[in-house]
Design brief:
The protein is an alpha/beta fold. The two termini are 20 Å apart.
Length: 247
């Protein structure tokens, strides 16, 4: 088991799903974790749960499409726990599933890009500035969708391809800083986002309620991805570069 003792970790989209599982695991392994999310109820509940276990965790409301929010998230982590070591960008949305390209409205397409791509960029931007010459680790959540496989949503697949591209390009634009960037591409993971996507597919294909439930039961535990992220956040992953694909 890799240790993250004393590391300061910021996780966007950390209230549930992959982000929530990662917040739990990183905190359990000794990290000081700041959970950023728009879901105040879940975020505050998770932070409270972990704090009651004696783990160093707090919640910060953040809309990753707003640069001021992203900057405040990083500043809060530093003010509370010290220099930033690790950023994990799990915040994301999936909209426009099973809508043909010609029928997809621009507002939906743009909203997905704003959260998934703009939000990732803004958090990276302010994390890189905070890490400076001291360095750190940045872990981006992309997806198999738009990278190695198709997507039910033109907007989502495009956005995740862009996040993957950002992770590929960023290391060459870090001005020599010792910041490691990895992009993680999960597949069919049991998250609120993916459960809703399965429901969308069921409606589009005329599935029964039982069919939808059966498909959701095939989704994989987000803790599996959390273990990958916790490893990548640790010193044990110092030699790992580029993209990591998970189940």
């Amino acid at each position: 088991m890799t240790s993250l003792a004393g590391r300061v970790v910021v996780i966007t989209g950390g209230a549930s799903g992959i982000g929530g599982a990662t917040a739990r695991l990183c905190a359990a392994r000794g990290a000081r974790v700041v959970i950023g999310d728009v879901d105040d109820a879940r975020g505050e509940a998770l932070a409270r749960e972990l704090t009651e276990l004696g783990l160093s965790t707090q919640f910060v409301h953040v809309d990753v499409t707003r640069e001021a929010d992203c900057k405040r998230l990083i500043q809060t982590a530093i003010a509370s726990y010290g220099p930033l070591d690790i950023l994990i960008t799990c915040a994301g949305i999936l909209q426009g599933a099973f809508v043909e390209l010609a029928e997809l409205d621009l507002d939906t397409f743009q909203r997905v890009q704003d959260v998934n791509v703009r939000g990732t960029f803004l958090c990276m931007k302010h994390s890189v500035a905070a890490m400076g010459d001291r360095g750190g680790t940045i872990l981006l959540i992309a997806s198999g969708a738009g990278v190695t496989s198709r997507s039910s949503s033109v907007a989502y697949g495009t956005s995740k391809a862009a996040v993957h591209g950002l992770g590929f390009i960023a290391p060459n634009h870090l001005a020599g800083r010792p910041i490691r960037v990895n992009t993680v591409c999960p597949s069919i993971v049991d998250t609120p986002l993916k459960r809703a996507n399965v429901e969308d597919e069921g409606r589009a294909r005329g599935w029964s309620h039982a069919d939808i439930e059966a498909a959701q039961q095939q989704l994989r535990d987000p803790e599996g991805v959390a273990r990958v992220l916790a490893f990548l956040a640790s010193d044990e992953a110092d030699y790992v570069r580029g993209t990591v694909f998970t189940a």
